[in-house]
Amino acid sequence: MNKTYVPPVDSLDPKWYVIDAENQRLGRLASEIAKILRGKNKPTYTPHMDTGDFVIVVNAEKIQVTGKKRSQKLYRRHSGRPGGMKTETFAHLQNRLPERIVEQAIRGMLPKNALGRKLFTKLKVYAGPNHPHQAQQPETLEIETIPGGKA
């Protein structure tokens, strides 16, 4: 009889990581952060449980995209009212709310269910270099999204 693996309770103690998004590629960074939020970087990964860690992203305003995405990539939101669709480009949204770009990219890579919504609450994104989570003693995590080093 097959048994479902459930990790031991003492291994579920989440860590906190700080990731600097300055000069990083949006999609590559988002996929790495989504893996950390889900816990896929741990040997105790279980698909139906929250085994991931907390992630703090700083310098979201300095995220990079390739090609013509800065002027052609569109972000849509709907108010729920008839004719309530609002559209704006990457560049406009980056000037207005740079955190939302990173949040939307990561949210799209998480499960579309209650587990995904719970995992998303473990993500903290800030436009500038400062964050209010010093009490959690987060570790700095280096992620290289540009082949050959930083740009």
Keywords:
27% helix, two-stranded antiparallel ribbon, four-stranded parallel sheet, alpha/beta, Ribosomal Protein L13p, Chain: A, 6 strands, 151 residues, single chain
Reconstruct the topology from this structure.
Layout: E1 16-20, H1 26-38, E2 54-58, H2 69-72, E3 74-78, E4 85-89, H3 90-96, H4 98-107, H5 114-120, E5 123-125, E6 139-140
Parallel strand pairs: 1-2, 1-6, 2-5
Antiparallel strand pairs: 3-4
Description:
The chain is an alpha/beta fold and 151 residues long. It has a domain of 94 residues: Ribosomal Protein L13p, Chain: A, CATH 3.90.1180. The chain contains five helices and six strands, in the order βαβαββαααββ. The strands form two sheets. It has a four-stranded parallel β-sheet, with helices on one face. Strands 3-4 form a two-stranded antiparallel ribbon. Helix 1 packs across helix 4 and helix 3 crosses helix 4.
